[in-house]
Amino acid sequence: MTPQGYVALVLHAHLPFVRHPEHEEFLEEDWLYEAITETYLPLLWVLEGWLRDGVDYRMTMSLTPPLCAMLRDPLLQERYLRHISRLIELAEKEVDRTRWDTALNAVAQFYRQRFHDARHWFDAVYHRDLVGAFRKFQETGRLEIITCAATHGFLPLLEAQPNAVRGQILTARDHYMECFGRAPMGIWLPECAYTPSLEPFLHEAGLRWFILDTHGLMFGDPAPRFGVYAPVFTPTGLAAFARDTDCSRQVWSAEVGYPGDPDYRDFYRDIGFDLDYDYIRPYIHPDGIRCFTGIKYHRVTGRTPYKEVYRRDRAIEKAAVHAGHFMAERCRQIERLAKLMGRPALVVAPYDAELFGHWWFEGPEFLDFFVRKSVYDQGVYRLITPTEYLRAHPTQQLSQPTASSWGNKGYWEVWLDGSNAWIYPHLHAAAERMAELVRHHNRPDALTQRALRQAARELLLAQSSDWAFIMKTGTTVPYAVKRTKDHLGRFNRLYEQIRARQIDEAWLATIEWRDNIFPNINPQYFG
Amino acid sequence: MTKSQLLAKTKAELLEMAQRLGLRGISTLKKEQLAERIEQAQTSRAAAGKTAGPVTNLVERAKQMVKRRAIRKPTAAPASASPREGSPGAGAPRHEPVEPEPAVHKFEVAPPSQPVAQKLTDDDGGELPESYGTQRLYLTARDPRWLYAYWDFSGQQMARYRQRAVDGRVVLRLFEKHVEQPVQEITLTPEARNWYIPVPKPSTTYHAELGYWQGRGRFRVITRSAEAATPSETVMAQAAARFVTIPLELNLADLYRSVREQIRHGENLDDALERLRRAGAKLGPIDADRLTEQQQAALAHLLYDDLLRRIQAGSFEISEWLRRRLLEELSSGVFSGAFSPAGASWGSGALGQPQKGFWFAVNVELIVYGATEPNATVTVDGKPIKLRPDGTFSFHYVFPDGHYRMPIVAVSADGDDRRAVELEFDRQTRDIGEVGRVKQPEHLPQPVTV
């Protein structure tokens, strides 16, 4: 039966490159470890289930280059095992500690099982290679993996030096090919930040489509006839898809969003803060700073500081109810649209992947239910990936989307305001210096080539949009400031050394060891 | 916070504050020195415009938005900017509310109320240069109504130009494309390094110049920026839609490369495709997906249906209303995918804000600890436990009201010796007044390690 429309689920998985071999333990590396336990492995379990049961699903994921680089890094893999083993030890103690409280004890046992599963799958099943695990699903033809910019640079604010954008995109494309053995068709523009001048570089990388926020397409010229329910072709022939607001609102809105349901697990109540200090001491930060452990016993309960104990079975039932509601809403939406459009409507639902599992603990189960229900319980729409959609529907309206992002207020403000604007003169100057170095060293000797490559790495790492975002949102500001300054500082020092033809090889080796992202980077892209 | 307020705190509290501020080398400081460092750091932070508190209340946020919208209407008054910190222009609220962003939770290692002090690594590159002296002027459109400019001049370079100026001032001039006279002229304060410029027009191309007035009304340009176009903030007119077919199998990158040079300004790839098609290639625009008038109207109705329920309006009003709605949603965070931090924890705010009035929470745990030969086997309630290498053990138990039994048995490695204890516990609780149960104190004492 021909469907009346399509739903394209897109998950954007990204973390900035945080790897500190110079420290035995480093707090911000926990971002990765938590995301592995709470998001990436649970998503893989969902994918495994679909594969096992022969579910004809479609889903799209961007796995950004820094995330892939970290997931493939032996040091971080080793450290993840240390992290999860410690959690298992804590969960064992928790099962014991809570023996006289049945409700808590059930949750403790749940975590113990889950952490054991995580270690088993990570180590014994996937042999520590989660990138390889995702790749396997892409090869089944049902999961489409797309690329992103090399270090998630906010491209419109880098284009003062066009080759900075070129370096971000082509390095990402190369890295994608190393990870996934083929060329990417689509790109997740970091923060959905788009401006028309990015397009030549997307062409050069062989990319065909990208995703915008709703207004990027809606405010395009001319206005898109089908709203956001069909992509447009830009004047250079790339396809631009846009996010559907209803899908975002139902999942993330504070008033009507699913994750605020009283039955779902509460994000903030964590035994890292709740328990007696001496007891929890070995499982928090080595300096004795309390932090999240990942063991959280309570559910959202209501708009109250009083929290009831989490009931896993009830939370899972609620995820199924919400998935059913989400499916019914999509059916209603698509039926209405199809009648009016005279062609199948496409609803694009992009989300940050880490919000599933890490923030919304039951998010992966919600996805599982939603996809299975979509495949088996309705006939209105079909799940699709953007590439597959373009193959089936190569005729689209021509329109020039407007510059936009998915950040607050829709443009650049989150990444360009009083807290973070100071970084741009430095980022622009460094990109210009990088271009100068490449131009002046077209036949570098081995040592100079190493220095050029490292300079490109430091430049890319400094450009990560996460630093500006953190400076603005104020979560771990000193770290973001320091990372920006460190990479720019290292870059500037390399620049001076390369120019003076006095490369300090011992120091170069040290920063190669520290900032080891993109071993095969091509400095020519930046010239 | 003033120094005297700071000194009223304990040293441990000050150390924690200093850590949160990212100060280092503080472990050896005396209390007074510590207070000074914190005061300095707070002052410089405040100057950097970081004192804004989060506005989570939607109504408040909506009000702010309305205010901001009103203020954002550009006025004739030139923007004022302070150096380097990049404060917004005149009229823009200095303390913009920090909106929750979707990805923010990725970077949390603790609840918002409990910022984790960080231990940072050794410095590498040291401080960054004040400027690079490239004499470049950078201009970008931050959004449809604001441009942002910075210029990269050393203090010396700037001083030289100021000397040459007839009035001792360097001037930033803003031009709209195809308009000869500058649309704004901003006299820069000597310490200014950047400027936020309110502009009246979305979808408009601007460029800027930095220069100074010489004698006899002559303007000398030092440097020009590249063009920057403000994005659109409204739904454009429904011009005749043009549809093109671009098969996925087509090598678009090659095609684009081959026609890129021939594309005239303002022309699109489709026209180039058309040329290729005329030359015999099998591509190009086709007529498809033509909508009837009726279908168009119905679709518009659906896209803007909430609106139409409220206003029976012409297309101008429709697009205006839609624009406002989009902006409202953007600001509320709903639209941008940003969601309230209350999403998965309605009560999370309560963790952060001190409770009103007096409060009391008591938790009871039972700790059992002991020691034996390191190679002995110890069971608690029949279940073996793990001894530390030195033979000691320590266990915590949640201890709710009730009656409990706990046998603990130790058996020597050779199995010959056996010792046991039978523990019995009763707990009964009577609350007098409201007493919390599961919750730990708001701000648990943290040892300060530096």
Describe the structure.
The complex is a heterodimer of chains A (527) and B (450). Chain A is an alpha/beta fold and 527 residues long. Chain A has a domain at 417-526: Families 57/38 glycoside transferase, middle domain (immunoglobulin/albumin-binding domain-like, Up-down Bundle), CATH 1.20.1430.10. Chain A has 19 helices and ten strands. In chain A, the strands form two sheets. In chain A, strands 1, 2, 3, 8 and 9 form a five-stranded parallel beta sheet that branches. The mean pLDDT of chain A is 94. In chain B, 26% of the residues lie in helices and 20% in strands. In chain B, strands 3, 4, 6, 7 and 8 form a five-stranded antiparallel beta sheet that branches. In chain B, strands 13-12-15-16 form a four-stranded antiparallel beta sheet, with no helix packed on it. Chain B has 450 residues and is of the alpha+beta class. Chain B starts with a helix and ends in a 23-residue tail after the last strand. The longest helix of chain B has 18 residues, at 315-332. In chain B, strand 3 and strand 4 form a beta hairpin. Chain B has eleven helices and 16 strands. Among the domains of chain B are: 74-96 and 128-229, Immunoglobulins (Immunoglobulin-like), CATH 2.60.40.10; 244-332, no CATH class; 365-427, Sandwich (Immunoglobulin-like). Mean pLDDT of chain B is 68; it is low at 47-102, 281-291, 301-323, 329-354 and 439-450. Chains A and B meet through helix 1, helix 3, helix 7, helix 8 and helix 9 of A and strand 1, strand 9, helix 6, helix 7 and helix 8 of B.
Note the overall shape of chain A: globular
Please count the helical segments of chain B: 11
The SSE string of chain A, one letter per element, is: EHEHHHHEHEHEHEEHHHHEHEHEHHHHH
Amount of helix of chain B: 25-40%
C-alpha-based Rg of chain A, rounded: 24 Å
Ends apart, CA distance between termini of chain A: 52 Å
List keywords for this structure.
heterodimer, A: 527 residues, alpha/beta, 5-stranded parallel sheet, 5-stranded mixed sheet, B: 450 residues, alpha+beta, Immunoglobulin-like, 5-stranded antiparallel sheet, 4-stranded antiparallel sheet, 26% helix, elongated
